[in-house]
Amino acid sequence: MPSTLPAAARPPWRPRPVPRVLSVAGSDPSGGAGVQADLKAVAAAGGYGMAAVTALTAQSTRGVSAVHVPPPSFLAQQLDTLRADVAMDGVKIGMLASAEVAEVVARWLDGSGPAGRPPVVVDPVMVATSGDRLLEPAAEDAVRGLLDRADVVTPNVPELAVLLGDADAPSWDGVLDQALRLADRHDVLVVAKGGHLAGDEVPDALVGPRGVVAELPGQRVRVSSTHGTGCSLSSGLVTRYARHGSWERALRETKSWLAGAITAGPALEVGGGRGPVDHFWALREALVEG
Ligand SMILES: Nc1ncnc2c1ncn2[C@@H]1O[C@H](COP(=O)(O)OP(=O)(O)OP(=O)(O)O)[C@@H](O)[C@H]1O
Ligand SMILES: Cc1ncc(CO)c(N)n1
User: Fold this and answer.
1) Is the pLDDT of residue 171 over 90?
2) How far, in Å, is the centroid of ligand 1 from the Cα of 82?
3) CA torsion, points 82, 2, 189, 219, in degrees to nearest 10?
4) CA 226 to ligand 1 center in whole angstroms
5) Would you call 116 a catalytic residue per the annotation?
6) CA quadruple 204, 210, 211, 212: dihedral sign
7) CA end-to-end span of the chain, whole Å?
8) Which domains does the chain show, CATH number per domain?
9) Is the ipTM beyond the 0.90 threshold?
10) In this protein, which residues make up the domain named Pyridoxamine kinase/Phosphomethylpyrimidine kinase (predicted)?
C-alpha cells in the first residue's frame, strides 16, 4: 500500500467493500460543505460515514455569518469514544478552526490504538468558497503539523500558497511546482486542484515528493453549484482508496463522479448563492431509468 507512515503504525491493509470512514470537520447547516457534504460523499462512494464535529458554522449558500468552536476537549472525547468502539478504514480531516482543535486532532492521530492508523486525507480548509475565513491565521502552523501525519493533502490554489508561505501560483505549472515542494517538505502525497484557476480547464494532479504521479485533465462545468467541492473530493477520495488501495485510481474515480455532481447541482434549487453539488446524481439517474 502506498503510504508515508512507517508500516508499524498501520493495520494490515485489506480492501473493504463498505469502508467505515470518519469525517473530522465543521458543520455546514446548509448541507453543501463540511460534515454534511462528507457524509453524503462517503455514502455516494459506497462507504459508511461517521462524523466528529470540530466547529459549528452559521452558513448558507451565500456565506458564513458566524463560527462557534466548542471546547477542544469535547472533540477529544468524541474521537476517543469512537475509536474505543469502531475500527476505521479511512479518516478525512477538514475545517479545524483553531490551533487548539488542530492539536487535539494531531494528538489523536498519534495515539492510533491497537487497530493502527487508517489512511488519512487532510483537506486544509482555510477560507470558504464565499471568501469567509474558517481557520484562525494563528492556526496555520498547527495545520502544517497535521500534514506530517497525513497520507494525502488536498489544498486548493490559495491554501497551497499559504502552506508554503508563497504567493498564489499564477498558472497550472506553478501549482504543480508548489505541490511538489509541499510533498517534499512533508513527505506526503499532494492533490493539486485547478478549481481556482481561470479558464475552461480544471486539471487536478497527484503529486509525490519525487514528482507528478498522475495528471488528470478536466473541463470546467459553467455552473455556480460549487459549494463544498473540496469537502466532497477529499471524502470521496479516502473512501474509494479504502475500497481498492490505489490513490491514483481513487482520484480519477472521484473527479469523474464530482463532475457529474457539479453538473447536476443546479437542479436541486438550494439557496440563492453558490449552491451545493448533487452527491447522489448517479442514484437519481438510476431511479429514473429503473
Ligand atoms: N466548475 C468546475 N467544474 C468541474 N470541476 C470543478 C469545478 N470547480 C471545481 N472543480 C473540481 O472540484 C474539486 C475541488 O476543487 P477546488 O479547487 O474548487 O477546491 P476547494 O476550493 O477546496 O473547494 P471548496 O469550494 O469546497 O472550498 C477539484 O477536483 C476540481 O477540479
Ligand atoms: C464547515 C465547512 N467546511 C468547509 C468548507 C469549505 O468549503 C465550508 N464552507 N464549510
Assistant:
1) yes
2) 31
3) -100
4) 7
5) no
6) negative
7) 38
8) 19-263+271-289 (3.40.1190.20)
9) yes
10) 28-278
Q: Is 228 a catalytic residue?
A: yes
Amino acid at 66: A
CA–CA dist 139, 98 (Å, integer): 5
Euclidean distance between CA atoms 289 and 95, whole angstroms: 37
From 231, 236, 254, 265, active-site residue? 231
Question: 55-95, pLDDT tens digit by residue?
Answer: 999 999 999 999 999 999 999 999 999 999 999 999 999 99
Cell of 86: 469502531
Active site residue 57: no
Q: Which of 90, 194, 195, 230 is catalytic?
A: 230
Is residue 226 annotated as part of the catalytic site, yes or no?
Answer: yes
pLDDT of 1 reads 39
- Choice among 49, 193, 194, 254 that is catalytic: 193
pLDDT at 256 over 90: yes
Residue nearest to atom 4 of ligand 2 (CA): 34
What are the two backbone dihedrals, phi and then psi, of residue 150, each rounded to the nearest 5 degrees?
A: -95, 155
Confidence band, pLDDT 50/70/90 cuts, at residue 5: low
Whether the per-residue pLDDT at 2 is higher than 70: the answer is: no
Per-residue pLDDT tens over the stretch 275-287: 999 999 999 888 8
